[in-house]
Amino acid sequence: MSQGFPICSGKEVVRVLRKHGFRQVSQKGSHQKWRHANGRQVIVAMHGNKPIPIGTLKSIIEGSGLSMDDFR
């Protein structure tokens, strides 16, 4: 696979989180809080199909405990 960082929109990130057992627990404005049964939690900013900034996506990946390849 490519060594570059994946480029994902909020909708794509939510699709990956749902696939791995995360559920939306709350929302405030455009920010959604997603939580896994084991306690991991991430915040995803939903701005349509606009790509999530790399630093924000890195934080989501680390907080979710998933690998970068899950988001490709």
In summary, what is this structure?
The chain is of the alpha+beta class. It is 29% helix and 22% strand.
Overview of this protein structure:
There is one protein chain. With 72 residues, the protein is α+β, with helices and mostly antiparallel strands. Helix content is 29%, strand content 22%. It has helices spanning 10-19, 54-64; strands at 23-28, 31-35, 41-45. A three-stranded antiparallel sheet has the order 1-2-3. A hairpin with a 5-residue loop joins strand 2 and strand 3. It is globular and about 30 Å long. The model has no long low-confidence stretch (mean pLDDT 93).
CATH superfamily: Hypothetical protein
- What's the domain count? 1
Tell me, briefly, the overall form: globular
Cα Rg: 11 Å
Overall pLDDT level? 93
Main sheet properties: 3 strands, antiparallel
Distance between the termini: 9 Å
Summarize the helices and strands and which ones pair or pack.
Blueprint: H1 10-19, E1 23-28, E2 31-35, E3 41-45, H2 54-64
Antiparallel strand pairs: 1-2, 2-3
